[in-house]
Amino acid sequence: MKNSLLVVFLFFSFHYYSQTDEDLKLLKEKLKTASSDTARLNILSDLAEIAPDGEWETYNDQMKVLAEQNLKKSNSLELKKIYQGFYAGALNNEGLILQNKGELDKAYVCTVKSLEIRQELNDKAGIAQSLNNLALIYQHQGDIMKALENFLQSLKIQEEIGEKVGEANSLNNIAAIYCALDNVEKALECYYKGLKILREVGMKYGMAKTINNIGTLLQDKGDLQAALDNYRQSLIISREIGDQSGIGIAYINIGRIFVDKNWIDSAFFYYEKAKKIQEATGDKAGLAASVHNMGVLYWQEKNAPKAIKYLEQALSIAKELNYTERISEAAGALYEIYKSENRIPLALSMHELHVKMKDSIYNMENRKAGFKKQFKYESEKKEAELMATAKAEKEKLELKAAEERKRQNIIIYCVIAGLVLVSVFSVFIYRSLLRNRAANKIISAQKKEVEGQKYIIEEKQKEIIDSIRYAKRIQQSLLPTDKYISRNIGNLKK
Prior knowledge:
The protein has 494 residues and is mainly α. The chain contains 18 helices and no strands.
């Protein structure tokens, strides 16, 4: 994505910070009192992540040296793994530092070494970081497909382990690839998705970068006010967290907006502010952008001496960083100026350099066109695979739903059958209960009748017994007594 001025387009590396000055102060105090090398390494690792530009690099160097020293003298396998982890992290960060300096070959060596150690340790979070930064190197080298491949691998791992910040960074970097492939809508979709995640986790560093990139795309679409709003929002966040690089980039992009609005003085003001920050922090890539934009703007204002001064500085930095496109742009602008001033040898020299770099860019553009075709083919293939997978999944869900309905119907039928059986059984029990009640009434009546007859019989039996006893008393009253008989027998004997 580019226009007549240099566009600063950001990829995300895995180094970010959002802590306050109090957090930094606390960590620095802890570093002074740390009782072991392991504790010191943990603190240095945190400082290397959260300290602002110009500081975190020093802490990273200290972490690398301390980890190397302990790796050499440690005999414990477990401790060696711990020190390897810190060493790999320091190498990954060093690769990022080298990228910012434009030393891509050295950055590649550091990043690959970091990746190998992390793969050996099975450190998935670290692997994702190294893959991301390796993709950045491929991107700077113009190998878009390798960059995309590594970004996608990084994203997959981040999703697996639930690392939201890393997932957002990977999405933003994939969005940058879509930008390189001129797919603005897809890029914006990825940016907004990544920004949502960053807001959820409160990662302000990433928020500022993402908002800036969204502004760049909106500006290219011609929506200057929306772009300016995004740049200002990015600037506010960058100031809040002390991100000097982010502040410088926001200034450059706000200046670009003012150029498009033809507010030249305001544009110069913001370019100069960006330049001072980038010179102070050693941000060569940002400085190249600032001085190039200032040179082009001075030439538009017919101030050839100042235009030459800044464009020559931009060309020098672009050569140092080996930024082919930037070399071509600076050389082309200088060619126009030298030619207008009739400085033929210098104009010819710049023209030759411009053509040489343009041929290189043309070859890169041809390769990019090939990448686009390949990407389109692979995207369509992937889309077809996804549609087939979605269709199969839908059929699977429908089959599962049908089986579930069948199972529910069986359950319903069983419940109904059970209720019918219970009803029938209840009727049977009720009828049995009624029969038992009727039988009990008959038995109770019969029992009462038997008891009545028994009472009658007992009464008659009592009457008979009483009659016998009465007859016996009468009989006994008529017969002589035993004493009487005994006395008479005694008299007779006498």
